[in-house]
Amino acid sequence: MRFPRANLQLHRAQVVLLLAVLLPTIAMIAVGVVLLATSAGSLPAVVSGVLVLTFCTSGITGYILGSLFLAKGAALVRVQNDFVASVSHELRTPLTSIHLLIESLRDGRLEPAERSQVLSLLARETGRLEALVGRVLELSRLQSSYDYARDPLDLLAVVDEAIAAFDAITLTRPTPVSRRIQPDLIVTGDRPTLVRALVNLLTNAWKYTGDDKRIEITAAENRRWVEITVRDNGTGIEPAEQNRIFEQFQRGRAADASGVPGLGLGLSFVNAIVRGHRGKLDFESRPGETAFRIRLRRRRDRAQVAGAALAERLAS
Questions:
Q1: 100-125 pLDDT, tens per residue?
Q2: CA 82 to CA 247: how far, in whole Å?
Q3: Do residues 144 and 127 touch, judged by C-beta distance below 8 A?
Q4: Is 141 left (phi over 0), alpha (psi -120 to 50) or beta?
Q5: For 31-52, how does the pLDDT look when each residue is reduced to its tens digit (9 = 90+)?
Q6: What is the 8-class DSSP label of residue 298?
Q7: 248 and 270 in contact (C-beta within 8 Å)?
């Protein structure tokens, strides 16, 4: 089995931990058991045996904790390697195009009309590269350094803002969104990022449904949670692809086959935002229906927030 360099070092550390801690500890356990079995009531032998077994317990605990830390490190290395590989793959296409276009200009054999076309293509590929880098940096910020606000939010107002933004994005093909929102739902969160998460889910639902688009957003209480669900009548996500759907740059075969533009970052943004709100994100998908569900902690001081939201709506 071949390991990347960082993974190989972690694998070696696990082997060293096994040889240096676990095996000697097992041998010491045997010594402690022998001391207790042959003590014949001798107090020094009993105390020695108990001390040896206590030391062995500490050794085993240390081995378990060390193994957990190493496993965590290996998982982070795998995520980092996958991310770097994905970014490199996505960057290669526009960089290759830019290189070929610059070569064409440098040869000096292009007609003026062709040169203008090449410059237009070069500007398009440069813009594509800039957008890709910008989105990757923004996603990294949402996952690590972004300071999520903890404001009380009227969920109905958040949903209304998300639908308004979605309507603006889909002006070329307006699609009504069915809405069923339980009244007076209050959540704690960061309004701009929550709106963005809902817009991403609505836009995905719009992209991957056919001509007869049916999109619905619902929200209701469920014990300690407020559950927000975006449901559509698209083709669904294949079972083999569902485990990796929230990873960066992951697009299903159906999405690629449909020719719908995208980078495969939309659901990664949603996942990062929900995690930043200490919420949960899951989905169910089958042919003809897909539903993404965001679960956020319910806030109790409804009257105050609902009054402020009503005043805001009346003022606007």
A1: 888 888 877 777 778 888 888 888 88
A2: 9
A3: no
A4: alpha
A5: 777 777 777 777 777 778 778 7
A6: B
A7: no
Structure tokens at 252: 């299903």
SS3 134: helix
Handedness of CA 32, 35, 38, 44 (dihedral sign): negative
Structural contact between residues 189 and 273, judged by C-beta atoms closer than 8 angstroms: no
Residue whose structure tokens are 């939309």: 266
Count other Cβ atoms within 10 Å, centred on residue 284: 14
Main-chain dihedrals φ then ψ at residue 215, nearest 5 degrees: -125, 135
Distance CA 280, CA 293 (A): 8
Q: How many whole angstroms separate alpha carbon 115 and alpha carbon 133? A: 27
Phi/psi of residue 252, nearest 5 degrees: -70, 165
- 110: buried, middle or exposed (CB in 10 Å: 19+, 13-18, 0-12)? middle
The widest CA-to-CA distance across the chain, in whole angstroms, is: 103
270 and 193 in contact (C-beta within 8 Å)? no
Report residue 261 as tokens: 């533009």
**What is d(CA 36, CA 32) in angstroms, rounded to the nearest whole number?**
6
d(CA 129, CA 91): 7
Which 3 state secondary structure label does DSSP give 217?
strand
Half-sphere exposure of 311 (CA within 13 A, CB side): 6
Coil/strand/helix, residue 99: helix
Token pair of 55 as six digits: 């030391």
* pLDDT tens track for 279-296: 999 999 888 899 999 999
By CB atoms closer than 10 A (0-12, 13-18, 19+), residue 302 is middle
Distance CA 309, CA 153 (A): 8
Q: Are 296 and 282 in contact (CB under 8 A)?
A: no
Relative orientation angle of helices 302-315 and 155-169, to the nearest 10 degrees: 40
